[in-house]
Amino acid sequence: MISFSSFYKQIADSNLQHWLETMPSILGDWQRENKHGNLPKWEKVLNKLNFPKPEHVDLKNSVTVGTGDQLTPGEQEKLKNLLGILKPWRKGPFHIHGIHIDTEWRSDWKWDRVLPHISPLKYRTILDVGCGSGYHMWRMLGEGAERVVGIDPSALFLCQFEAVKRLIGEDLPVHLLPLGIEQLPPLDAFDTVFSMGVLYHRRSPIDHLLQLKDQLKNNGELVLETLVVDGDENTCLVPADRYGKMNNVWYLPSVPALIRWLEKCDFVDVRCVNVDVTSLAEQRTTEWMPNESLVDYLDPQDITRTVEGYQAPKRATIIARKKPTNE
Predict the structure, then answer these.
(1) Which of 27, 44, 128, 298 has the fewest Cβ atoms surrounding its Cβ within 10 A?
(2) Which residues hold carboxy-S-adenosyl-L-methionine (predicted)?
């Protein structure tokens, strides 16, 4: 069974220590009640990841663990087969002992778009909401973050993250908790909060923005990346049914509307730093994610539209600051 004891130990003397009053009970409930049928199989994979501690780890320029020279061809094949049991791998890529995990998303491209616009992460305590398998968390650590906590309710993402962490072989200050943000008590403890690819999945986007604010220190920085549509401050698409074959997309605002939402929630210095149309090269089917991907969600006769006829995915990155109570 996946244990969170190292997380409890690390936060005991930190500004997250108040979580010790509630988090063991919350995570204990998850451990008892998680019913995903594949979890025992995935946990067996984690228990078999007994490979040499890598001589080389690069989290600054990529997520690279080892070079492959430490493993025999047989060990490398065994490792690839074990990691393959954890498919589909959606966020990445990862380079593990010479194995290239070519994920559905080129999450490194998103990181390269975001990084130049945010406050330096060195010595910061960071929350990554909807972190997926943790790719961006490793890159945050590579930028010198003091502590990174990610939350995502997916058991598969947790196991993928744990696989990478166990292969690195270090008790690093980075943790993934299988929770949603609504399960976190307001903490006002994080220097930076990331929410990338989450807002449009929330039934109440304003509540989500307020929940993000509740986790930030005064003057803390929010990095928000989400799907948007063209339009003015009053424009927001509410799909009738599905959007890009997804049935859990609720609200797609325009950039001006999203900025207004954030300002209404008492964020200040709100600015859009990037707008980018998702390309077929950034999200696609691969060996490690063999299911449908972006090309299958677009109109084959007009890739500027989804199969439902909506504007094709366009993503914006917004940076904002939590307004201190005395401003």
Answers:
(1) 44
(2) 91, 105, 110, 130, 152-154, 181-182, 196, 200, 315
Q: How far is Cα of residue 226 from the mean position of the Cα atoms in its chain? A: 12
Distance CA 152, CA 83 (A): 20
**Widest Cα–Cα separation across the chain:** 62
Q: Is 91 annotated as a binding residue?
A: yes
CB 151 within 8 A of CB 176: yes
| CA atoms of 99 and 87, how far apart (whole Å) | 14
For residue 154, say whether it is annotated as part of any ligand binding site: yes
pLDDT tens digit sequence for 229-241: 999 999 999 999 9
Annotated binding-site residue? 151? no
Arithmetic mean of pLDDT over the chain: 95
Residue 196, annotated ligand binder?
yes
Residue where the block lists tokens 């077929």: 280
Tokens of 184: 């976190």
Question: What's the pLDDT tens digit per position in 73-109?
Answer: 999 999 999 999 999 999 999 999 999 999 999 999 9
SS3 181: helix
The answer to the question of whether 105 is labelled as a binding residue is: yes
Tell whether 213 is in a known binding site.
no
Cα(124)–Cα(129) distance, rounded to whole angstroms? 16
Instruction: Give the residue from 38, 33, 248, 284 showing the smallest Cα distance to 160.
Output: 38
Distance (Å, whole) CA 325 – CA 299: 48
200 labelled as ligand-binding? yes
- Residue 109 marked as a ligand binder: no
- Average pLDDT over every residue of 177-181: 95
pLDDT confidence tier of residue 318, bands split at 50, 70 and 90: very high
pLDDT for residue 283 is more than 90: yes
Residue 205 has pLDDT above 70, yes or no: yes
